[in-house]
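Hi V.,

You were right to ask for the full record rather than a summary. Here it is.
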Amino acid sequence: MKERVISAGIGLVILFMVLFSTNYILRLSVSLVTILGLVELYKSFGFYKNKVLSVLACIMPTLVIFINILDRKYFLPVLYVYVLILFVSLILKSKEISIKDVSLILSLTAVITFFFFYVAIIRDMENGSIYIWAVFIAGWLTDTFAFFSGMFFGRHKLAPLVSPKKTIEGSIGGILGSTLGFLVYGYIVENFIGGMSANYLYLAILGVFGSIIAQIGDLSASAMKREYGIKDFGNIMPGHGGILDRFDSIIFVAPFVYYFITYFNIFY
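Predicted structure:
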């Protein structure tokens, strides 16, 4: 527990430094997190044991940083070319790689890269420096409250075949923690940042559904780890695991937050 708390503290310091920095630094950070997450994923799936797969797995992550920093409009053209490369490789190296390998690389690279982009996209919005916090409130407050609620009150299993330790009580605690976090977030913005009023109903709705989606992201990562018989995707954060272990909920939450705040004015 001590290791977990210290690691979380260091992570929060880094997060605050990045979120309070320039858009350029945030884009660079998003790119690096995406690359590290994909590398962890490919390593966990054993892709680096095959020379062809290791090369294919490295192409897109290497381009991610340039796409995010230069212009995200290049994402779809680059993805298109990447798809062609994957299937040409499948045709020429059918004895070394399978359609399952190509499908995994393509789907996970596209999903993780595209979903992570939304963190930077939100920051680029008007008042993005305020809205960006919503992603991490939904993702990490859900994780934190679910962890402690499950520890103290957990009795009924939530998804025993996917993640045996997660409980319904922990899930409810995560939803309540996220919702409370959004209400506090609204109060802070309204009273200390100034210039905007908070719509607490919309904030509460965002807190509830943001937490549910964060838990879907967490359970999805657990399903992948269970499928491949691994405990964590990496060990870059002692007590928490790898990048994907810490950001699995953020990957799913970021797009939802973007579309929610696009159509509903949580601040006005």
